[in-house]
Write a structure and sequence with these properties.
Blueprint: E1 2-4, E2 10-12, E3 17-19, H1 30-44, E4 50-52, H2 62-68, E5 72-79, E6 85-93, E7 96-100, H3 101-105, H4 123-134, E8 139-143, H5 154-159, E9 163-165, E10 184-186, E11 198-203, H6 215-219, H7 227-248, H8 251-256, H9 263-273, E12 277-280, H10 281-289, H11 291-296, E13 300-308, H12 317-327, E14 331-339, H13 343-348, E15 353-356, H14 364-369, H15 371-386
Parallel strand pairs: 3-4, 3-13, 7-8, 8-11, 11-12, 13-14, 14-15
Antiparallel strand pairs: 1-2, 5-6, 6-7, 9-10
Helix pairs in contact: 1-15
């Protein structure tokens, strides 16, 4: 901010700063990013007033961001993507729950990192949703991303009371591959409490369920799917949607083509079948975390994530933070591990300047291994450039 000194000259002084950054995936959580940035700023301006609001866009780290903002962490034992039991968490405040599908069905939940593109199931995500219902909530923010699964949300729906049967009347095998054997879907046993909650599908992707931009084609390879697996999964999900059409009518096909249906291996589709409304994940999370009132209290916003690139501009956390801050007339800078956007693109996104770790340490491997200390030095540079 600018004030005048005794001679009438403009002098920059440190105002209140808001650190609203996402995680540096594989290096630092969003909470750790905020802590390192705060420490670096205060090495230059010791009495600086810094407010931390770790953010997430609905993917992994969403529950941690909610807990950092004052939600209560609730843990429950659920099925992991391959059926093994894991401890997963959701966040609770009042009658609102934040549920993160990656807590139960994420890639990090696969034992020893073994990928299982055809058999991984979202059953545990359904158990997490059921735990939130047991807590008596009226609103569930369902953050999806980072999944190990491509089952169209069939496992999640099964955990909530749906049945997916083969020609002999037996349950189909778990995972997207098993849906090729689906003959009948019965949704009559779905938990009736679902009809009484506002279910918000929070995602940073708007892909449909199937086709060239669908879940198997775009995201299947990230989960270990070979080209043949992608073809099989896409055919299985097309078949799954057709069978669901027999159970719930034309809206099954409408949901399959809707934005967000392909999120997190198609769990977005399952959520839409449950009546969820799709919203960009970062918009939802900024509302839930109380970003607007925090923004009013500050003069500078520091956002960021591990890599600032073209993907950042399509619904990722820094783009959402910058857009909201720019609308409020606040100055925004960003921190990142790697920067792949030119200054003019950053400017159009509402980011005045970006500070990559690679500016101080060109060795990417060292940036990943020593992200915390390097980020702290980056924050010192921000303080010198913008606060003193």
């Amino acid at each position: 901010m600018q004030v005048a000194d005794a001679a009438g000259n403009d002098v920059r002084t440190a105002g209140r700063v808001l650190v609203a950054a996402d995680k540096f995936k594989g290096s630092l959580t969003a909470v750790q990013v905020a802590a390192r940035v705060t420490a670096g700023l205060r090495r230059v301006v010791p009495d600086l007033d810094v407010e931390s609001l770790p953010v997430a866009d609905g993917g992994d780290g969403t529950v941690d961001a909610a807990v950092a903002a004052g939600f209560e962490r609730r843990e429950v034992r659920v099925a992991g993507p391959l059926g093994h039991e894991v401890t997963a968490a959701f966040a609770l405040r009042g009658d609102t729950a934040v549920v993160e599908m990656a807590e139960a069905s994420g890639l990090q939940r696969l034992p020893d990192g073994v990928l299982a593109p055809l058999t991984a199931s979202t059953y545990g995500s359904g158990e997490l949703l059921r735990a939130a219902l047991d807590a008596g909530v009226r609103t569930i923010v369902f953050g999806v991303g980072g999944s190990a699964t491509t089952d169209g949300g069939a496992g999640m729906l099964s955990a909530l009371g749906a049945r997916f049967l083969d020609g002999a009347g037996d349950p189909v095998p778990p995972g997207g591959g098993g849906l090729a054997e689906l003959a009948r879907a019965d949704l009559s046993g779905l938990d009736p409490r679902l009809a009484m909650v506002d279910l918000v599908l929070a995602s940073d992707v708007d892909n449909p369920l199937t086709g060239p931009k669908g879940a198997p084609a775009v995201y299947g390879p990230q989960k270990g799917a070979s080209p043949d697996d992608v073809t099989a999964l896409d055919a299985a999900l097309v078949h799954y949607a057709k069978v669901l059409e027999q159970a719930i009518g034309p809206r099954a096909a409408e949901h399959a083509a809707s934005p967000g249906a392909g999120a997190a291996g198609g769990i977005g589709y399952g959520a839409l079948v449950l009546g969820a409304r799709f919203r960009p994940g970062i918009e939802v999370m900024l509302d839930v975390l109380g970003f607007a009132p925090a923004l009013e209290r500050v003069s500078l916003v520091i956002t960021g994530e591990g890599s600032l690139d073209t993907q950042t501009l399509h619904g990722k956390a820094p783009a959402g933070v910058a857009a909201a801050a720019r609308a409020a007339g606040k100055e925004v800078v960003a921190v990142c591990g790697r920067l792949a956007l030119p200054p003019e693109t950053l400017g159009r996104a509402g980011i005045r300047r970006a500070y990559p770790l690679t500016e101080l340490e060109p060795d990417v491997a060292k940036c990943i291994a020593d992200a915390g200390p390097i980020l702290q030095r980056v924050a010192e540079n921000i303080a010198r450039d913008f606060l003193v």
